[in-house]
Amino acid sequence: MVGKQWKLMASALVLSLGLHSAAQAIDFGKEGDPIHLTVGFQPYFTPAWSGVIIKGKEFWKKYLPEGSTVEFQVGLQGAVIVGQMLADKQQIGYLGDMPALTITNKTRVADVRLVGVTGTSTQSCDILFVRNEAPEFKDAAAAAKWVDGKVMAAGHGSCADRFARVVFEQAKIKPKQYLNQSLEVISSNFRVGKLDAAIVWEPTASQLESKGIARRVASGANFGERDGAFIAMRHDLMEKRPDVTRAWMEAEMDAQLFMADPANADEVADLIKAETTGLDKPILWHALYGEWAANQGGSDEKLTLNYSFTPDMVEYAQKAYSFLHSIKRVNTPKLRDDAIDNSIAEAVLKSRNLTAPLGSVKALPTPSK
Q1: Are 64 and 246 in contact (CB under 8 A)?
Q2: What Cα–Cα distance (Å) separates residue 269 from each residue in 8, 140, 178, 207, 208?
Q3: Residue 228 and residue 239: Cα distance in Å, rounded?
Q4: N vs C: which end of the chain shows fewer Cβ within 10 Å?
Q5: Of 163, 187, 222, which residue sits at a domain end?
Q6: Are 114 and 132 in the same domain?
């Protein structure tokens, strides 16, 4: 969730908090010592929910040195977490792909690397909605054609923006206006009839549909596009406390395996509900586990739990980074060579005799009341 607002917020946070000199750096102690970590997480972005599970189930307590503590800080947008990490106020962050890739480009401020993939999906961020008065469409292609010459919105620079531009290109359309709007503004503008279409992400997408604010008509599943979220870590933590970085990725594995088990769906929704406001439990459940009809962009797989940066994930990250360069959000066309550190995730996989991806969240029928 980036864009002009993202850039201003991140810059303001860095300037107000100040850049830390080496003398001001956090003392992480030596290997085996108790540590205090501050972690930014996003309960309002479904692909990043493994961070919420780690907090709610306290998986971190199984692996961090005894006596360690963790402070979890909610980021309503990825920009908030980016700013905190750059300012050395958070050491670990759960970020959507766009802000996660952007932060790796800020090496003059801080060295932040990507160490894991929380999950990817074709229907978590890449979801096309239209106003309720729009006609019924036979398929996603017809829905996209209808957007031509209409007023549309998305958060510019976000995964939603990337998907919107894919739709424009594949359907060969051009909206009358393509506005940069937050989820809250999109919802309000649908209510008052100021928007024809928008791209949004979960769980807001399930809320729009549940409350009858707008209609879901397509997703990335219809256009071969996916979105996702990554785990970012400050390199100074990784360098000074390899035991802690390994411990965190152990906890992350537990969280992803927990989410993949459909028997845990109800508890997952409860854990997310405890960290959010304004979202009912059925909406949260549906955002991750609920099935959608094929003519709404539904598919069997809701979320792939990738865990590690396998070659296809590295390719996906580079493609997304190239998009950021194309819209002038980063100043280099390619990710720096050390932006992704896959060694920790791969070591954990090997120790447990597992391979990536760990599994997936499958679409489930809505429970009867």
Answers
A1: no
A2: 33, 29, 34, 14, 18
A3: 26
A4: C
A5: 222
A6: no
Q: What is the C-alpha separation between 294 and 300, in angstroms, rounded?
A: 9
pLDDT in tens, the chain (369 residues): 444 444 444 444 444 444 444 335 688 999 999 999 999 999 999 999 999 999 999 999 999 999 999 999 999 888 899 999 999 999 999 999 999 999 999 999 999 999 999 999 999 999 999 999 999 999 999 999 999 999 999 998 888 999 999 999 999 999 999 999 999 999 999 999 999 999 999 999 999 999 999 999 999 999 999 999 999 999 999 999 999 999 999 999 999 999 999 999 999 999 999 999 999 999 999 999 999 988 888 889 999 999 999 999 999 999 999 999 998 999 999 999 999 999 999 999 999 999 999 999 999 987 765
For residues 148 and 173, the answer to whether their CB atoms sit within 8 Å is yes
Q: What is the 3-state secondary structure (H, E, C) of the chain?
A: CCCHHHHHHHHHHHHHHCCCCHHHCCCCCCCCCCCEEEEEECCCCHHHCHHHHHHHHCHHHHCCCCCCEEEEEECCCHHHHHHHHHCCCCCEEEEEHHHHHHHCCCCCCCCEEEEEEEEEECCCCCEEEECCCCCCCCCHHHHHHHHCCCEEEECCCCHHHHHHHHHHHHHCCCCCEEEECCHHHHHHHHHCCCCCEEEECCCHHHHHHHCCCCEEEEEHHHCCCCEEEEEEEEHHHHHHCHHHHHHHHHHHHHHHHHHHCHHHHHHHHHHHHCCCCCCCHHHHHHHHHECCCHHHCCCCEEEEECECCCHHHHHHHHHHHHHHHHCCCCCCCCCCCCCECCHHHHHHHHHCCCCCCCEEEECECCCCC
244: left (phi over 0), alpha (psi -120 to 50) or beta: alpha
How many of the other CB atoms lie within 10 Å of CB of 323? 20
Chain-centroid distance of CA 102 in Å reads 13
Residue found under tokens 């766009």: 98
Q: Are 164 and 46 found together in one domain?
A: no
In one letter, which amino acid is 143? A
Which range marks the domain in which residue 150 is found? Answer: 127-222
Are 104 and 213 found together in one domain? no
